[in-house]
Specification:
This protein is mainly β. The protein is built from four helices and 31 strands. It has helices spanning about 160-165, 175-180, 435-445, 495-500, and strands at about 20, 25-35, 45-50, 55-65, 70-75, 100-105, 135-140, 145-150, 165-175, 190-200, 205, 230, 235, 240, 245-255, 260-265, 270-275, 280-285, 290, 295-300, 310-315, 330-335, 365-375, 385, 405-410, 420, 430-435, 465-470, 470-480, 485-490, 500-505. β10 and β11 form a beta hairpin. This is Copper oxidase.
């Protein structure tokens, strides 16, 4: 089914209004429901799931340090929109088919409000998971200004819930940021990028079985999912009319598996000013930006003097990344049309310096952990991925002390790049280094075969998700806190996360 490109305008998610706000705290209620939405004008309306009746959900904007309470309410039907595989851990027949729990990705938050995968709940909180603690989550937002997102995190069905539409932006604002005079208001636009495939009737297609089907299973998890269309803010291949001036875009890769390497067909520079965890020290001008699932980039694009030009955002990242077929890339993302008149003189700037970014000193680390990314086969002959070769419910082995600094060596023994995400904290990337995988598998020795490569310029800031490349050891450093308790770390390819590539960790006193 061929859908025309650039026929629908880019929607901009609304800002969520608080139910209550005073000088002490802010209270929101967010409903999850099933509804129909037009994702492309040539398609019938698509049944999706979303927060507050929209996909993506409304943007939640908070101030740094603002105490926010959110009641996430599940009003979804009892039957899932997509095919559920009951052989996946956490999704067996002894739990309700539809369950949700919301994680604000990148947030520093108490464990009871983090959206632990086994803290799920059903409609009206009738049934809850073993780790469910409270109906109303508390977010203290003790973070610098940054671009976070909220999405479903239920064990065993995260890939299905997010693909159905359960995702939205969460922005932390700060006074200091507004003094930088970046493009703001209508000139600051969030862009959530996802890939999907549609059935002819307009409904969402998600595979029932992998390419090599398992005979004895009616529905089976797939090792990865790649859609054949790209959606931005819930529209297929949209266009955005812009004025000839600077715009700030908050990019988010919210796809299940697909990586993106964004370029502008005009060949012009994209100015990156921020990473997952907020503003960088200096802006950088780049020709392309790579985003793995869950990674964000804060960028400025300057359309000055480009009146009447159309600029296409392209993608050429192979799928799977990095060694997959470039033909699977889906080369077009969206189009900018510089067709609006300038409403006022553009006084916004790309600052030469934004804010100090203190590096964590390697010598301050009290512990180093060596953690493998592994490829395995299950009893049905299906591939499944593990962290440190341990399944989800193995005893907890990562137990950093509150306030301590650690270095984690992510030893990738697989053929894929895995976006590794840690809850609770931001980390910094130290380096990546090629090593001999065969030797490691035989002798459990890391034999480096090349020099340590520093993080790419676009990664030199606070990160909560890192690309751990095949045949490389990726080192990250972080300080654990300010909360103690139970969190998770996992691969953010949702098909991997659902099928065992996730581990609990606990911050201890």
């Amino acid at each position: 089914m061929l859908l025309s490109k650039f026929v629908d305008e880019l929607p901009i998610p609304p800002i969520l209004k608080a139910r209550w706000k005073d000088q002490f705290y802010t209270y929101y209620e967010v409903n999850m429901t099933e509804f129909k939405q037009s994702l492309h004008s040539e398609l019938n309306d698509t049944t999706v799931w979303g927060y507050e009746g929209s996909y993506p959900g409304p943007t939640i904007e908070v101030e740094s340090g603002e105490k926010v309470f959110i009641k996430w309410i599940n009003n979804l039907p009892e039957k899932h929109l997509l095919p559920v595989d009951y052989t996946v851990h956490g999704a067996h027949l002894d739990v309700p088919e539809v369950r949700t729990v919301v994680h604000v990705h990148g947030a520093s938050v108490e464990p009871e409000s983090d959206g632990y995968p086994e803290a799920w709940f059903t409609k009206g909180f009738k049934q809850v998971g073993p780790y469910f603690r409270k109906q109303i989550y508390q977010y203290d937002n003790n973070m610098r200004a940054c671009n976070l997102w909220y999405h479903d995190h239920s064990i065993g069905i995260t890939r299905l819930n997010v693909y159905s539409g359960l995702a939205g932006f969460y922005f932390v604002r700060e006074q200091r940021e507004s003094l930088l005079n970046l493009p703001a208001g209508q000139y600051e636009i969030p862009l959530m990028i996802q890939d999907k495939t549609f059935n002819y009737d307009g409904s969402l297609y998600y595979p029932r079985k992998p390419e090599n089907p398992v005979v004895e299973l009616e529905t089976s998890i797939v090792p990865e999912f790649f859609g054949n269309t790209i959606l931005v803010n819930g529209k297929v291949w949209p266009f955005l009319k812009v004025e000839p001036r600077k715009y700030r875009f908050r990019l988010l890769n919210a796809s299940n598996t697909r990586f993106y390497r964004f370029k502008l067909d005009s060949g012009q520079l994209i100015y990156q000013i921020g990473t997952d965890g907020g503003l960088m020290e200096y802006p950088i001008g780049v020709k392309e930006i790579i985003l793995a699932p869950a990674e964000r980039a804060d960028v400025i694009i300057d359309f000055t003097n480009l009146e009447e030009k159309n600029i296409i955002v392209k993608n050429d990242a192979p799928a799977p990344f990095p060694d997959g077929d470039p033909a699977n890339a889906v080369g077009i993302v969206m189009e900018f049309r510089v067709s609006l008149p300038l409403t006022s003189i553009d006084t916004s700037v790309i600052p030469s310096y934004m804010e100090p970014f203190p590096k964590i000193i390697e010598q301050s680390a009290s512990k180093e952990r060596y953690l493998t990314l592994n490829d395995n086969m299950d009893q049905y002959g299906r591939e499944f991925m593990l962290l440190d070769n341990k399944p989800w419910d193995a005893p907890i082995t990562e137990n950093p002390k509150l306030g301590s600094t650690e270095i984690w060596y992510l030893i990738n023994l697989t053929t894929d790049t895995h976006p590794i995400h840690l809850h609770l904290i931001d980390f910094q990337i130290l380096d990546r280094r090629d090593f001999d995988v065969e030797k490691y598998n035989k002798e459990r020795i890391i034999h480096y075969t090349g020099p340590a490569l520093p993080p790419e310029p676009q990664e030199r800031g606070g990160k909560d998700t890192v690309r751990a490349n095949p045949r490389q050891v990726t080192r990250i450093i972080m300080k654990f806190g300010p909360y103690t308790g139970l969190y998770v770390w996992h691969c953010h390819i949702l098909e991997h996360e659902d099928y065992e590539m996730m581990r609990p960790y606990i911050v201890i006193r």
